[in-house]
Write a structure and sequence with these properties.
Structural class of chain B: alpha+beta
Largest sheet of chain B: 10 strands, mixed
Number of strands of chain A: 3
Number of strands of chain B: 19
Shape of chain B: elongated
Number of domains of chain A: 2
Low-confidence stretches of chain A: 175-179
Strand content of chain A: 5-15%
Oligomer: heterotrimer
Radius of gyration of chain B: 33 Å
Order of helices and strands of chain A: HEHHEEHHHHH
Largest interface: B-C, 26 and 36 residues
Distance between the termini of chain B: 49 Å
Helix content of chain A: 55-70%
Helix content of chain B: 40-55%
Largest sheet of chain A: 3 strands, antiparallel
Mean pLDDT of chain B: 77
Structural class of chain A: mainly alpha
Chains: A mainly alpha (179), B alpha+beta (779), C alpha/beta (230)
Low-confidence stretches of chain B: 1-6
Radius of gyration of chain A: 19 Å
Chain lengths: 179, 779, 230
């Protein structure tokens, strides 16, 4: 899962200090595993190097008072990431969840995102099904294992799709619109 | 719980509670629950009405018998003339199709008996008549009839002297009766009348009718209490889900049925009352009755009131036995058991056996026993039809194959479960078998009566007068000039005792008439006045009587009457074949003589019958003849050629039987319709799927038609065979020639076919609705 | 394999259909290509079965048109559509589609018989299809005597026996366990691909949909056709 994309996405709603960014990330996606400051600043540095963010220094302040803002290239990068289907694999939910929340936060179509992911899952399932149909019992069992996991992911996608409105209301309370 | 109720009482109160719950369920089931209750109530009500009507028959018959006995006379005893006697003679007549019960009375003293229902004895020239006759005479309709008797109406008869409100009865006062022409009585009333009144054939008719009527009603009742059973079963399955056990559901079902049956009883009683009000107006005059007599025999009514609900519950419980109500749904025992034949054959075989013992009529087994044996035999045979039918349908449909899709669907359905269809059809089978048997007997009896009356193949004569007494001349002269009469010829008859008298005392009859009339009795070639012929009866069996030997010398006239003449039958008298009319065989060989051949014997001759040629252009000619004959001798009987007296009575009965059979068929059609509709509802999803993959509606409709028609046709076939067989046995027992009643078979078959078509047609709207697009959505 | 070189076989264009106040289809459009297996997915009540019924000419939409091989289904009479369903389409439903009184063989022969094929010939072809779907042993039995999986295979045989160009399958494995369901799907899609028959498959199960070439998602009466991932 890409912390960089997540931070970029969070920046889309407005420029922030690195400290705010970390808190915001931990709040939404941390789930008990907070980011280290070091990781935040090294990631921001990489993004800065790639021209995806820019620094807006506020005069008279120390190095901590740097505010980061997303660039045009950064916005395009986030959009591309959201529209891109993840490679179906176990424990994907955290990434998918991050993407859904960010899509909602940035006013993009989260349902599209889910559909794209569904199509990708199904593509792989088709692939596995085809392999299974041609293969022996071992292939069968191995493919079935994968299929059942993918199916579980898909169910999650379905369920999330059905609850998008609810989720949107939760991640976009009026108070977060302040900046 | 300090006071533990005795276990039994607890069980009983629980039972009552469950029955009550069934009753509540039957009305709490919303619209469909009410519909089901209403259908059961209507069905049971219809059945109960019929049962109650049947239960009034004995009361009606008893009331009629009482009146019949009250006005009958004892014509066996010799009573000396006294101041309490009167002379009385029958003067029955016909007006159109209506029979008239008439009597001539002649008072011989002050204490002569009053005719029942009359308030006085009519003096010569006076008449006392029944209200219906009085009314008829007063209207234009009875104008011709009013001329028949020389009587002034001085009073009307009360109900105790008139069998039914529509009966024509009169007592005509005269002064011409003598000991010879009339009976002398001291009182009215004779119990002989009833015993003699019912002839064996009529008794049989009644028995067949009763069995044929009641069995289908029973079958219908059994179907009616199962109306909507499928829905009920589903409801009960839902009850099992919330914890009712199997026995509880049975009791709840029983309670529900009980509610329907009791409601049905009330409906039936109500319908019976309505029918009672209307029926006396609707039935033909011969079958009318006093409304006061229309009371079910209390015992029978009580039996109906008990047996119907109890039977309904038994039917429900036994139907549930074939169904397992599981909490999650209804499982039907559809194991395709093969129906066994042997026990179904027991009743028909017993029936045939019983009927075989009575095939030769009442004389063979004697009176009362005959009726019971015959009734038991018929009941066994007709119930046997109902039992045999399921096996027959099973055996037949198992062999059916081929045909189109509609046919295949229907046949396979019947192969899997023919029970419901067969139950409804057994009603048809029993009633049609009964109706055909009845029809067969009726037509045979009718044929027999008209054969006895004789016919005139040449068409010269249309009527025959049978005088009670009187010289030939009086009749020829009296009738020849009557209006409407073209010609009249007398055939006289005299008893001929051979001399010397034979050891067995056997006598012959000599019939005297001109050649034209003699040709009505036998096939005669050349004939001139003075010829004599010997008539040999044409009959299948042995002819009665001894052979006539030409050249025998006879004594003509009643021996001992003082007016006898010796006469020799010419040796050259040719033998001629008779016309084969009914009584010919019974009379045996007869001598036919032209007047010139027996000129010397003329004083001994009495007019035996007068053949009358009517003015065929005048439709009322027969009434004019009756008027003229009544003027000469009111006691003379007049018959048309061929005789239609009985024909009209019998055709009334035949019509009644046909109407009854049609009503029963409708009943059966209604129960088949319920079955079909239920079946269609049950498989609405399958129907929608069949339509989805392109099944034409016509195919589905066709399969419904076949599904109804196959059992009906099989039932009808069995009914025709059994009915015809039964009819043949009854005809033999009644002494009538055996003949098939194609009209009856055709009419009942046609009615059955109509019922099949109507039932199918009535089920089509639902089929159409269920197969509309969108039927697949109800998942 | 999505083969868009094939011409469109069935086209639904802007279908609207309401049952009373309920909107079942709300501007639904869909294309089915010849020979493809298309899965219609979506939550229950989304309108996927209704769409299938419209495509098959069982239901007529309130507005919009359904085209089949260049003909307008909506403009056809009921009789014509029945004839079309008899000859060009096949159907498999979730349950209760076999006539309980007929044997399995007779059930399979039914569409042929409805189309006027003589009985002997119809049963010969039906027997071949039962054999192909590995249920030849239940030919003489009634559906009630066969297992659920066997029954569905009989239904598949019946759907394919008349050589249709489209088979409509509405939750064909809905009443089966996964092993039986998979086998039925293998046999159905295998036979359809062999004969070049298109399959429109309504299902809410991903593993069943995985037997398709392509899926379309129905949500709130609208179709979201497959969006291809980059």
């Amino acid at each position: 899962m890409s912390v960089g994309h997540a931070l970029l996405g969070l920046l889309e709603s407005g420029p922030r200090h690195g400290y705010d960014l970390k808190r915001s990330y931990d709040e939404r996606f941390g789930r008990g595993r907070e980011l280290h400051y070091g990781q935040v600043y090294s990631t921001l540095a990489r993004l800065l190097k790639n021209g995806l963010v820019e620094v807006r220094s506020e005069p008279g302040d120390g190095p901590d008072r740097k505010r980061y803002a997303i660039t045009e290239a950064g916005v395009t990068d986030v959009a591309g990431w959201l529209a891109h289907a993840e490679k179906p694999e176990p424990y994907l939910q955290s990434t998918l969840y991050t993407k859904v929340v960010l899509a909602l936060l940035t006013g993009r179509d989260a349902a599209d995102l889910l559909d794209i992911q569904r199509a990708e899952h199904l593509r792989l399932m088709r692939e596995l099904t085809r392999r299974k149909t041609g293969g022996d019992l071992a292939d069968h069992l191995i493919c079935d294992h994968a299929l059942f996991h993918l199916e579980a992911d898909l169910r999650w996608l379905e369920l999330t799709a059905a609850r998008l409105d609810q989720l949107a209301a939760q991640v976009r309370p009026p108070s977060t619109q302040e900046i | 719980m300090s006071v533990t109720p005795p276990h039994r009482r607890g069980t009983r109160s629980r039972l009552l509670a469950e029955l009550a719950m069934g009753v509540r369920l039957s009305v709490a089931g919303g619209r469909s629950g009410w519909a089901r209750l209403a259908m059961i109530a209507a069905g049971v009500g219809l059945g109960v009405t019929m049962l109650l009507l049947a239960a009034t028959v004995p009361a009606l018959v008893a009331a009629r018998d009482t009146r019949l006995v009250a006005r009958a006379i004892d014509n066996q005893s010799e009573i000396p003339r006294g101041d309490d006697t009167m002379l009385i003679a029958d003067a029955n007549s016909l007006y159109g199709e209506r029979t008239i019960h008439g009597r001539l009375v002649q008072r011989e003293g002050d204490r002569a008996p009053l005719p029942p229902g009359a308030d006085r004895i009519p003096a010569p020239g006076e008449m006392v008549v029944s209200p219906a006759l009085a009314e008829h005479l007063a209207t234009g309709e009875g104008a011709l009839l009013a001329e028949r008797w020389n009587g002034r109406i001085v009073g009307t008869l009360g109900p105790e002297g008139v069998l039914n409100p529509q009966e024509f009865v009169f007592y005509l006062g005269v002064d011409s009766l003598t000991d010879e022409t009339a009976h002398r009585i001291r009182s009215f009333g004779s119990s002989r009348a009833v015993d003699e009144g019912i002839a064996a054939p009529l008794l049989l008719l009644g028995l067949v009718g009763l069995v044929a009527l009641l069995l289908p009603v029973a079958v219908f009742l059994a179907t009616a209490v199962r109306f909507g059973g499928e829905a009920r079963d589903r409801q009960l399955a839902a009850l099992r889900l919330v914890g009712a056990d199997a026995a509880m559901t049975r009791r709840i079902a029983a309670g529900e049925t009980l509610a329907g049956a009791v409601l049905g009883l009330l409906t039936g009683a109500l319908l019976f009352a309505v029918v009672g009000l209307l029926a006396s107006r609707l039935v033909p005059p011969g079958m009318s009755f006093y409304r006061a007599d229309l009371r079910p025999v209390p015992m029978l009514a009580a039996i109906v009131a008990v047996v119907v609900p109890v039977g309904a519950v038994l039917v429900t419980v036994s139907a549930l036995r074939r169904v397992v109500l599981e909490p999650l749904g209804v499982v039907r025992h559809s194991t395709a058991r093969r129906r066994r034949l042997w026990w179904r054959l027991i009743l028909p075989v017993v029936g045939i056996g019983l009927l075989f013992t009575v095939r030769s009529g009442p004389d063979a087994s004697g009176g009362e026993g005959f009726a019971y044996v015959a009734m038991a035999g018929m009941a066994a045979l007709l119930i046997g039809v109902a039992l045999l039918l399921p096996w027959l349908v099973d055996a037949a449909v198992r062999r059916l194959d081929g045909g189109g899709v509609a046919w295949q669907l229907a046949v396979r359905r019947l192969q899997l479960d023919s029970g419901t269809a067969v139950r409804a059809v057994s009603g048809i089978a029993v009633s049609v078998a009964g109706a055909i048997a009845l029809q067969g007997v009726l037509s045979a009896v009718q044929g027999q009566y008209s054969a006895e009356g004789g016919t005139d193949p040449a068409g010269n004569y249309q009527a025959m007068v049978l005088p009670s007494a009187g010289a030939a001349a009086r009749w020829t002269e009296g009738l020849a000039n009557a209006p409407g009469v073209r010609t009249a010829g007398v055939l006289s008859r005299v008893t001929a005792t051979p001399t010397p008298a034979p050891a067995d005392g056997y006598t012959h009859a000599v019939e005297v008439a001109d050649c034209t009339l003699l040709r009505l009795r036998a096939t005669i070639g050349d004939c001139a006045d003075g010829d004599v012929f010997i008539l040999v009866p044409q009959t299948d069996g042995a002819a009665g009587g001894a052979a006539v030997t030409p050249g025998t010398t006879y004594t003509l006239g009643e021996p001992g009457s003082g007016r006898t003449v010796a006469w020799t039958l010419p040796g050259n008298a040719p033998t001629v074949p008779g016309r084969g009319t009914g009584l010919e065989a019974a009379y045996g060989p007869t001598v036919l003589a032209t007047p010139a051949a027996v000129r010397d014997a003329r004083p001994t001759l009495a007019a035996d019958r007068v053949y009358v040629g009517l003015d065929t252009g005048d439709p009322a000619a027969i009434e004019r003849l009756r008027n003229a004959a009544a003027r000469i001798d009111p006691t003379a009987m007049i018959r048309t050629l061929p005789d239609r007296t009985f024909a009209s009575v019998l055709s009334t009965i035949r019509e009644a039987v046909l109407v009854g059979a049609a009503a029963l068929l409708l009943l059966v059609g209604a129960s088949m319709l319920v079955n079909v509709i239920e079946q269609l509802r049950e498989r609405r999803r399958l129907l929608a799927i069949l339509v989805a993959f392109g099944t034409r509606r016509g195919t589905l409709g066709g399969s419904v038609l076949y599904q109804i028609a196959v059992p009906v046709l099989l039932g009808l076939g069995l009914a025709v065979v059994v009915g015809t067989g039964l009819g043949a046995v009854l005809q033999a027992a009644a002494g009538a020639p055996i003949r098939l009643d194609w009209l009856g078979i055709g009419a009942t078959s046609g009615a059955a076919a109509l019922v099949v078509l109507l039932t199918t047609a009535a089920s089509l709207p639902l089929l159409w609705r269920l197969t509309k697009p969108g039927g697949l959505r109800s998942e | 394999m999505v083969n868009h070189l094939q011409p469109p076989l069935l086209i639904a264009d802007d279908l609207h259909l309401s049952f009373g106040p309920t909107r079942a289809l709300d501007s639904a459009s869909l294309t089915v290509y010849a020979g493809e297996v298309l899965a219609l997915m979506g939550p229950s009540g989304s309108g996927k079965s209704t769409l299938l019924h419209c495509l098959a000419g069982i239901l007529t939409p309130d507005s919009g048109r359904v085209g089949y091989a260049g003909r307008d289904l909506s403009a056809m009479s009921d009789t014509e559509r029945s004839a079309l369903r008899r000859t060009e389409f096949g159907f498999v439903f979730q349950f209760g589609q076999l006539v309980p009184e007929l044997t399995c063989l007779e059930n399979v022969a039914l569409p042929l018989r409805l189309a006027g094929v003589r009985r002997r010939e119809a049963q010969r072809r039906a027997a071949a299809w039962l054999d192909r779907l590995e249920v030849a042993d239940v030919a003489g039995k009634r559906p009630g005597q066969a297992s659920g999986g066997q029954g569905q295979r009989v239904a598949v045989a019946r759907a394919l026996v008349s050589g249709p160009r489209v088979v409509f399958a509405d939750e064909p494995t809905g009443a089966l366990d996964s092993l039986n369901g998979e086998r039925v799907m293998q046999l159905l899609t295998g036979a359809a691909r062999d004969t070049g028959t298109a399959v429109v498959l309504v299902t809410h199960e991903a593993r069943v949909a995985a037997y398709s070439d392509r899926e379309a998602v129905v949500r709130d009466g609208r179709v979201r056709e497959q969006v291809h991932a980059r």
